[in-house]
């Protein structure tokens, strides 16, 4: 990691793999060898459901819960596990159907509704997500609920509501980097670049490895004509990528010579061949020659 100085503008915004085995048989003293019961009832006692949900490969988790729901279709907790596993596996459309089944159960929870709304947002169904969130009592104050409320408000361009929800969400978690980054991006899309810069900088202080926030920070600075990198921890590759982002921002703002210089610096800074930056520089030089 190196410490640097930064600058730039545009960009919007789910493991440990493990294998779990159950012993297939057991030989009690003086008895016959018996097959172990691998049904859901036996698995419950081992905590395997939690392991599969939190540590297993997402596809293994989906297979496990699909099989478990088939064995015990009346179990809401298993249906919930399937829905969560589908999200982890990157299948939001299937997850929406699974969550819809979960929230229809008599023993479903308000958190289930919030997770249902999250799945809907991942598929782009903002209208239904908003309806689901509206059905959650305001007394259900959780970080995830308010983060989603903020995103929905953003989609409706209800900026005052969005800011209020983002602020509440930040206060309900000890790891606010992600929501601060989202809030900053909201400000960026509104053209409130200085406010966006502050939020991205805050996000990085909570998670110095969050490259998305670093890149967004550069976008916000570039939009203000700040063509230098702020002080933050970056790898050499990240530094090159951020310089490239800043260079493109400068070009977009009409500061072509500054942009070319930054792109050249990005190429020199990258520890490997930086093909995207090389192509951009060639295109800029060709335009100058033809102009």
From TrEMBL:
Keywords from UniProt, A to Z, are: TPR repeat
Is the Coiled coil keyword given for this protein? no
Tell me where the TPR repeats sit in this chain. 177-210
Record Pfam families:
TPR_16
Q: Note the InterPro entries from the entry.
A: TPR-like_helical_dom_sf (IPR011990), TPR_rpt (IPR019734)
Q: Output the PROSITE patterns linked to this UniProt entry.
A: PROKAR_LIPOPROTEIN, TPR
What is the name of the protein in this document? Flp pilus assembly protein TadD, contains TPR repeats
Protein source organism: Celeribacter neptunius
């Amino acid at each position: 990691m190196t410490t640097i100085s930064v600058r730039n503008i545009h960009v919007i915004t789910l493991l440990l793999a493990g294998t779990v085995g159950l012993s297939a048989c057991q030989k009690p003293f003086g008895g016959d060898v018996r097959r172990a019961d691998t049904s859901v009832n036996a698995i419950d006692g081992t905590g395997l459901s939690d392991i599969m949900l939190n540590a297993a490969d997402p596809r293994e988790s989906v297979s496990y819960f699909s099989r478990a729901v088939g064995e015990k279709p009346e179990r809401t907790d298993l249906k919930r596990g399937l829905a969560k596993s589908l999200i982890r596996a990157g299948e939001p459309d299937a997850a929406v159907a699974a969550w819809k089944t979960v929230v229809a159960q008599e023993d479903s929870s308000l958190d289930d509704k919030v997770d249902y709304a999250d799945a809907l947002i991942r598929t782009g169904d903002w209208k239904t997500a908003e309806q689901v969130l509206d059905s959650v009592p305001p007394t259900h104050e959780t970080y995830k609920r308010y983060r989603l409320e903020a995103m929905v408000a953003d989609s409706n361009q209800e900026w005052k509501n969005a800011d209020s929800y983002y602020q509440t969400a930040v206060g309900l978690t000890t790891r606010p980097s992600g929501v601060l980054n989202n809030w900053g991006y909201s400000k960026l899309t509104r053209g409130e670049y200085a406010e966006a810069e502050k939020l991205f900088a805050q996000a990085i202080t909570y998670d110095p490895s969050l490259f998305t926030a670093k890149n967004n920070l550069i976008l916000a600075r570039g939009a203000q004509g700040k063509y230098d990198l702020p002080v933050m921890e970056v790898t050499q590759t990240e530094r090159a990528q951020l310089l490239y982002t800043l260079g493109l921002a400068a070009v977009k703002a009409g500061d072509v010579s500054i942009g070319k210089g930054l792109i050249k610096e990005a190429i020199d800074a990258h520890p490997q061949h930086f093909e995207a930056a090389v192509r951009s520089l060639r295109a800029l030089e060709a335009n100058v020659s033809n102009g």
